[in-house]
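Budget justification note: compute hours in this period were largely spent on complex prediction jobs such as the one shown. Inputs:
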Amino acid sequence: MANSGRVLITGATGKVGSALLDNLANDDIELRALAHDESEAKSLEGRGAEAVLGDFLEPETLRPALEGVGTVFLLTPIHPQQVHQATNVIEAARGSGNDPRILRLSVHQASHQSPTRISRQHAEIEDTLAASGLPYTLLRPQSFMQNTLMAAPTVASEDRIYQPMKEGRLGMIDARDIGEAAAKVITEEGHEGKTYTLTGPAAISFHDIAGALSEVLGKEVTYIPVPLEKAKEAMLSRGIPEWMADALNEYAKAHSEGYSDWTTDDFERLTGHSATSYKEFASDFERVFRGG
Ligand SMILES: NC(=O)c1ccc[n+]([C@@H]2O[C@H](COP(=O)([O-])OP(=O)(O)OC[C@H]3O[C@@H](n4cnc5c(N)ncnc54)[C@H](OP(=O)(O)O)[C@@H]3O)[C@@H](O)[C@H]2O)c1
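Corresponding output:
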């Protein structure tokens, strides 16, 4: 997917989108970032991209953002209306008259038969993309290492991680690596029609995560498996909406049953180097795990 024309990055203030922006900022590429409000647009100043206002749920705002765009990095948030949001962008891209290439951030094992509603949403969006006639590439990452930052408060205050993953192992990946892989796809030729399933270097359990944190923080961190109902109560008490808590628990149940106990070498083949290990990730985010 070599770059032709302007690149529109959606989700540019999020975990993957901001990493992509960092990877492309010094390239000779005209970058545009979609911001859904003024404060988000302001936060993008000085990042090497023109910020344009647009909301996934307001199709009329997407048309101007797509003008003159040759490539779209399409990332939509975890949301009950994710299908509607992504469909609006695909339709605006089709309507732009430029036939832009779409690099879609999907999820590993996106399927209509998936045990998780989010992966079923992604399958629906992948179908819409395939039917659009636009050239596209799929990135299908495993869970983000950044998800474990949700455990930072109890790591800092109690030296414990509470998760409903049992002994499950996940080939989790650093979201910054996904941004790097996305930049490769955007700036190189030959990625149309391809799917990259991105994982970290190893499938690891939460005991392994606790072990890595113990080494980095210089204290004994312990993983305490908890039942799904307890995890849901804790998420609701932190203000996480019920739809999201149930969606995350569907993943947790699947992970605990071996759904994600595998890795691929797609990241290494795309970038020429190995993906970030959990210990490297924990070192980079040491301040957060110390409660800072
Ligand atoms: N977390 C995982 O483990 C995992 C694994 C595989 C795949 N995924 C997929 O990754 C995607 C989420 O990626 P992420 O974690 O990088 O996202 P994120 O950090 O949650 O960021 C979401 C981005 O979307 C923007 N946004 C939200 N609502 C919008 C709207 N209505 N219009 C325009 N922009 C809007 C946000 O802007 P603001 O900053 O202003 O809110 C932000 O830039 C989801 O599709 C998810 O299924 C996640």
